Amino acid sequence: MGTPALRKAVKNACKVAAPPPDLTISQWADQNRRLSSEASAEPGQWMTDRAEYQRGIMEAISDPSVETVVVKTSAQVGKTECILNAVGYYVDQDPSPIMVVMPTERDAETWSKDRFAPMARDTPCLRGKLSDPKSRDGSNKILHKKFGGGHLTIVGANAPSGLAMRPIRILLCDEVDRYPASAGAEGDPVNLAKKRTVTFWNRKMVMVSTPTIKGVSRIDAAWEESDKRRYWVPCPDCGEHQILRWEQVRWDKDATGKHLPESAHYVCEQCGTLWKDAKRGGAIRLGEWRAEKPFAKIAGFHLNEIYSPWVKLEEMVRTFLSAKEHGEEAMKTFINTSLGEVFEIRGEAPEWERIYNRREEYPIGVVPEGGLFLTAGADVQRDRIEVEVIAWGRKRESWSLDYRVLHGDTAKTGVWNKLSAMLEERFPHTETGAGMMIDRMAVDSGYATQQVYAWSRTAPLGRVMPIKGVDKSRFPIQGPSDVEVKIGKRKRKRGAKLWTVCGPVFKAELYGDLRKDPPEEEEEFPPGYCHFPQYDPEYFKQLTAEQAVTRVKKNGFAVIEWQKTRERNEALDCRVYARAAAEYDLVRLTERVARNKERKLEENAKENNKDGLAKTKRSLSLPETEADTSSRWADPILSDDPWL
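Predicted structure:
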């Protein structure tokens, strides 16, 4: 080997043997990270000062004095990019066994393919350290990747074998509030993964998530154990530092009271000056993290979307106004994903006397002004079917039209014929006189399941929803799915359609709506306001017959359960079912759709008047007699009710 060649070989060997420069994660990202166009709206060189608050989070991860980093945050603040930067840093600068835990194995595969793979490909310093994905030695698989001095394992929190597989020094847990309560039968997945780090004196654990429900949220519990750092921003005018809060976001209304989200701005809580988006962005770049508690190896960070350079205040206001209209679940999503805060379920039942005392003087069976479509919820018992009919209007405003008990053995056809008759009944509209039919009826299939399925096959297409209650679901309603129906001795595998309904979601929404006060004179009713006619006290007692309680399971994980406070709760069940039946139409009830419905009601009324039917329609649904009312509250029947 000649002298020049020898010098070159020695030089290259020294490069390999030399320790990496002493960089923090943010410095490493600024020097090396390339954002891919397929995974980022802003491709090109990474710049931490684009979202300056990320610097403190990343520096805490690379700080040897910090053992655990907790990030409780909204969406759209770049938390996933911080995790990617941490992985890239440790692969390149401090090779170690690394584990990334996602909520499910499918999420783990998606993260590996769509987020990590583009970073590894487009960041030059990582290319030569990770094996070629096409290599045959198996060192670069989707969920397990080897590199000099360490490896990267990506697992789902629902897979106990992956969590208990190997020792880990760097543990990165993303979206921990979406993890299952237990990984199979092994227990809390976060604790399982944490045990993998005990053999390393210099271990590091990072927990990141948008929060969920107070008392259940993992990230909120971890945040409370941290030093609780918040990002303080100086006012561009008075210079006073402050935490950015939703209460300081303001917007205007026009002369008619219509909200104007495009006017959204932030108001300094010290001097009252207004910050538009550009001014807000400049202030955030000058912010700093401040801890509320003494540091004890756990650094905690909290952020909301107001800090994000990718979110305009106008967008936040529009999301908030939409959430107000669409109910408890939509507001929960806003609080969790936009404000980065836990949502507190007010699980105690509203006082039934308060609701009873604000009953209104509209006739039972007549649709008040504002009612645009009707739904019904039917609760099936052994000897009766209880049904509530509800009219729905703009912004989820509702009017209970009638509550009936159809007596009869539900194993026989007689009582089902009565239910069919209700589907054909017309309820007169108080303004137009138009006869309105029930658009959709949800029928509980927990009792007399086959009878419910068989009857639903005879109903007009799309107007009946057999439902099954579930306590937990990512969506309020899912389906439909095909279910088997027994007709005599025959079976039809796809004989009926079944929807699953998450009762706790609608119960929480209902209790929130029941607490709303009627407006002052000339003001609008609040979104979701519930109107009731002159029902007797028993109805309101049943409507408020449950409460949400937090229960700690044997594995130490807290869950929220709805429990009965009295034996009879059929009115609550019927209300929930009718609300589930309204979900499809309420989501799509824009102002344009509402006006179209009003126009059709007027057209129907004109047709009825031509035929002389208006008075006949108005008489089809009358208030019940004393005898009927007394039969409404039958003795309790034990059944396999999925809502109990």
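Summary: The first helix runs from residue 3 to 17.
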